[in-house]
Amino acid sequence: MAAIMSGGMWASVVLAGPSDDKLVIDEQIEMTTRTAAPEGHPLDEVISGWHYRTPETRALETDTFQNPGMLAVEEGAQIWETVEGTEGKSCATCHGDASESMAGVGANYPKWDEDSGKPINIELQINKCRVENMGAEPYKFDKDGQKPLTAFIKHQSLGQPVALDLSQGDMQTWWDKGKDLYYRRTGQLNLSCATCHEDYNGYRIRADHLSQGNANGFPTYRLKQGALVSIHNRFRGCIRDTRAEYPAAFSDDLMALEVYVTWRGSGLSVETPAVRQ
Amino acid sequence: LASTAFAASVVAPGDVAIEDGAVSKSLTGAPGDAAEGRKTFADRKLGNCLACHAVTDQSEQLFHGEVGPPLDGVGDRWSEAELRAILVNSKAIFSEDTIMPGFYTLDVGVDVREDLVGKTILTAEQVEDVVAYLITLKE
């Protein structure tokens, strides 16, 4: 039975599948939303979550004026200029015009951080600068300016291909650990990330249309929540849905998962803020 | 008293014997209720079977999944004892890798949510109800 029953054989069902559209933002920026998978990837083609959304949701991302996530990006732009902390500095004091200093930066995160001996993501890099360079409190997970500022920085890489440098420090070890976690079945429902996003992407699971679960659009704007959603929040939500306890944000487990999941989307354009359902 | 007597005849998850892909005896010692089973099947907090399976009999429900095969005619394809085995632990019937959860097994994933440790997704009674319902799905 098992052999004939593996995914993709219900000839009577018209599968929704990923759409064939092309994503062009503001009729200018041609986005890479499908690309050949990097070496060692289990799938042949890497596909952005954009392709799995409804035509209405897809349309919202093609126009920055319609993209509801852009409000948060503008909020991030203001935070960038805002002086905070004991040193009397803003991000702009040191980094100037973000459209220059941050262009392409977000596409290469997580990066290796020598100081902590761990990978660092944009959220943690912001906190590092707040603490070490501004004399300000670090943002708590998903609080205050964390999501808008992260989205603002990633948005400066809109259209740039996601590319991690796994040769930095111990990045490869963290990638390995992230891969283990990706295939580990959790919770009472006994599911791994791969069960849903590798084996069944393109299928409907009740009202949801399963994508490959790529990270290139984060923070994403979720219509359901009417707000930006961070990548660690998404990870925790997916793990929770397997009826498992979920790791803390920025824990070693979720950082390893971020390294590995981001790598799985190598070559896709950064879409931040992507629009999802 | 009645409920104690009932509980005593329930087969515990660890004691269910799957033989030749089948569990021949009712887990409660009594037949299930197909009408209840129909509800358990659709209920997102219980079977949530519609997440993965479409079934014409429940076309009043919005959104049927397409991860598993449509269950129309499933009562012709499998015997009652086989359907019970599929529900108890799909992994023992299809493959270790199947996406379908085992609904009456403690052979589950790691880091199970604290309040669910040692608990099955469905109770023995709910499994019997769903089995009774599936058997009505004939073509």
From TrEMBL, chain A:
Primary location class: periplasm
Name the enzyme group at the top EC level. Answer: transferase
Q: Name one GO molecular function term.
A: electron transfer activity
Quote the cellular component terms of the Gene Ontology held in the record: cytochrome complex; periplasmic space
Cofactor annotation: heme
Tell me which UniProt keywords the record has, alphabetically: Electron transport, Heme, Iron, Metal-binding, Periplasm, Signal, Transferase, Transport
Acyltransferase keyword on record? no
Active-site residues (renumbered): 238
Q: What is the top-level taxon of the source organism?
A: Bacteria
- Domain Cytochrome c per the UniProt entry, residue ranges: 75-162, 177-269
Q: Which residues of this UniProt protein bind substrate? A: 234
Catalytic activity field? L-cysteinyl-[SoxY protein] + thiosulfate + 2 Fe(III)-[cytochrome c] = S-sulfosulfanyl-L-cysteinyl-[SoxY protein] + 2 Fe(II)-[cytochrome c] + 2 H(+); S-sulfanyl-L-cysteinyl-[SoxY protein] + thiosulfate + 2 Fe(III)-[cytochrome c] = S-(2-sulfodisulfanyl)-L-cysteinyl-[SoxY protein] + 2 Fe(II)-[cytochrome c] + 2 H(+)
Provide the residue positions that the database annotates as binding heme c 1: 91, 94-95, 129
Where in or outside the cell? Periplasm
Q: How is the cofactor bound?
A: Binds 2 heme groups per subunit.
- Report residues binding heme c 2: 193, 196-197, 238
Give GO BP annotations, semicolon-separated.
sulfur oxidation
Q: Per the UniProt record, which EC number(s) apply here?
A: 2.8.5.2
- Entry similarity comment: Belongs to the SoxA family.
Tell me, how does this one assemble? Heterodimer of SoxA and SoxX.
What name has this protein been given in UniProt? SoxAX cytochrome complex subunit A
